[in-house]
Amino acid sequence: MIIWLAFKNIFHKPLHTILNIIIFATGIGIITMLSLVQRQFEDKFEKNIEGIDMVMGASGSPLQLILSAVYHIDAPTGNISLEEAEKWMHHPYIAKAVPMAYGDSYMSFPMIGSDRVYYQHFSADLSSGKLNEENYEVVVGSEVVNKLKLKLGDKFHSTHGQQEGGEEHDDIEWVVTGILKPTGKVIDRMIISNIESVWDIHGEGGCTHDHEEGKECHHHGDEGSQEITAVLLKYRNPMAAMQLPRLIKEQSKNIQLAQPAIEINRLFSLLGIGLDAIRYLAYFIMGLSAISIFISIYNTLKERMYELAMIRTLGGSKLKVFSLILSEGILYSIFGYFAGFFLGIVGYKMIAMLAETEYQISFGNLPIDFTQQSILFGISLFIGFLAALFPALKSYFIQISSTLAHE
Amino acid sequence: MLLTKDLKFEYTPQVKFDFPDIACALGDSLVITGESGSGKTTLLHLLGGLIKPKSGKVILNETEYSVLNGSSLDKYRGKHISIIFQKMHFISSISVLENILLAQWLGTEKKNKNHAMQILERLQIVDQKDKNIKQLSQGQQQRVAIARALINQPSLILADEPTSSLDNKNAEIVEKLLRESAQTMNAALVMVTHDMRMKQNAKNTIELL
């Protein structure tokens, strides 16, 4: 009955109430959305570095190397010679080495040349068709298929570079021979061929760029001139982590090593500063909403002193009046929390859509952090409680007689 | 039976009241008159248990409720005493019927919608039940206040200037309604007024000096 009356009271003047709820919800919404986006990003990023201890590539920014080689969201740092790379790929310290040559794309989806290790690395299985055997045969990831509606046997021309609208390789047709099952990893948005096709289309390994019969072109020229873009490495043992970076640094000047875990942590901590700033802003908004709720209750309290005295006259105890006012504050925060939670999810969905159209990164299910949400809910209740506490105390100590006599 | 004995109240040492003893049987009514400043409202609040006397007793049906404290006094008041104020105070966020139900719940911790409807019907305001109090006329509001006062079948009904803001016709109706209700409900009715119209009709009057 008290809660019902509190509900009636706060919606008696709905405009102000809605304003309070909106302010509150904005704070909650921002925090919810941020943590959803952050978790989704961290999840995507961390999932993709599983099983990669080190990335080997051309000199440049280590973060760029990781972003380009592991996530394919940045341009590569350059190429390294295959000969040089192979020296390390077959080193006894290395358990697994995934070579990659890339640089082309199709409709903004990155194309990559690699070998069978690539599929094993991602534990990717075919959902239909077969793995690529010949040059210019490609296997496509599940997201590519969803987005571009590719079928087995479809043919297309690739574009040079990662963006749409780059120079098109008109002379060469790629053909889809296999489609992969979804893995939730970066391979889902890749188009995979053998390395030879990549060399061939860019005129390396003896093939020229304007070759007429691309499909028959095999690398037959000077092996030394062949290049790859990056290699994903997994160490055989912890000793490797100690020794190998030093060895490579000493012996292969042109090769850069980057540790994905470190680079990604660095990226997260950079992002984290920005996210923290927005999060503090959100807490500030919640603080504002506490003040706004307080003012609403306090203002109406002046008008409602008679009402409260009347409730006392009718037999309501001090505690009932106290809890009535307190409930009003807490109701504000409960409505604010749920509206904010909803707002946060809508915001997240919008960012997810943006990420999908802009970066072909599709977000999976909602990674709601229930612990964080319960803490947020607790904070909400506390804010409502705090905002209403002083007015509630004031109504607790109301003098019935003098309130009703001085009218 | 409502009884008071040697009732004294003091706002400040200069402003203090010494009230005559009062007796009012259940079903009877008593009109208390007096100039403003004579302590009429103070006496009514003492009888209603809204303030505590400096000394003396207020007894209703052998219960001396002037010694009760805190929530037990609130509870006693809610159950046995109804007060109709000169200016009517309702909860503005809820309807007429809901105001009656709230009074019922506060007084008895139960809600009985049928009973509330019966009272509204008897006071001929049942068709206003879903309206907001502010949409009602002064006379209708007075009826709602009476309905709320009667809902818990109190033993004592206190009314502070119940008719002073009404015209002759309505004043007469309200007064009659109060007297009849007190009689049928077997409650003591104490009215405080400076309205000469009421004094003329009253059998038992006390004038405060």
Overview of the structural elements:
The complex is a heterodimer of chains A (407) and B (209). In chain A, 55% of the residues lie in helices and 14% in strands. Chain A is of the alpha+beta class and 407 residues long. In chain A, the strands form 2 sheets. In chain A, strands 1, 3, 4, 5, 6, 7, 8, 9, 10, 12 and 13 form an 11-stranded mixed β-sheet that branches. In chain A, strands 2-11 form a two-stranded antiparallel sheet. The radius of gyration of chain A is 31 Å and the shape is elongated. In chain A, 45% of the residues are buried. Residues 205-224 of chain A have low confidence and may be disordered. Chain B is an alpha/beta fold. Chain B has one domain: 3-Layer(aba) Sandwich (Rossmann fold), CATH 3.40.50.300. Chain B has helices at residues 40-47, 70-80, 96-108, 113-122, 138-150, 168-185, 196-201, and strands at 2-10, 16-18, 23-24, 29-34, 55-60, 63-64, 81-84, 156-160, 188-193, 205-208. The longest helix of chain B has 18 residues, at 168-185. The radius of gyration of chain B is 17 Å and the shape is globular. The mean pLDDT of chain B is 87.
Describe how the helices and strands are arranged.
The complex is a heterodimer of chains A (407) and B (209).
Chain A: H1 2-10, H2 14-48, E1 54-58, H3 62-71, E2 80-81, H4 82-89, E3 94-106, E4 109-113, H5 116-121, E5 126-129, E6 137-140, H6 142-148, E7 155-156, E8 159-160, E9 174-180, E10 191-193, H7 195-201, E11 227-228, E12 230-235, H8 238-251, E13 255-258, H9 260-313, H10 318-359, H11 370-396, H12 400-405
Parallel strand pairs in A: 4-10, 6-9
Antiparallel strand pairs in A: 1-12, 1-13, 2-11, 3-4, 3-8, 3-12, 5-9, 6-10, 7-9
Helix pairs in contact in A: 1-10, 2-9, 2-10, 3-9, 9-10, 9-11, 10-11
Chain B: E1 2-10, E2 16-18, E3 23-24, E4 29-34, H1 40-47, E5 55-60, E6 63-64, H2 70-80, E7 81-84, H3 96-108, H4 113-122, H5 138-150, E8 156-160, H6 168-185, E9 188-193, H7 196-201, E10 205-208
Parallel strand pairs in B: 4-9, 4-10, 7-8, 8-9
Antiparallel strand pairs in B: 1-2, 1-3, 1-5, 5-6
Helix pairs in contact in B: 2-3, 3-4, 3-5, 5-6
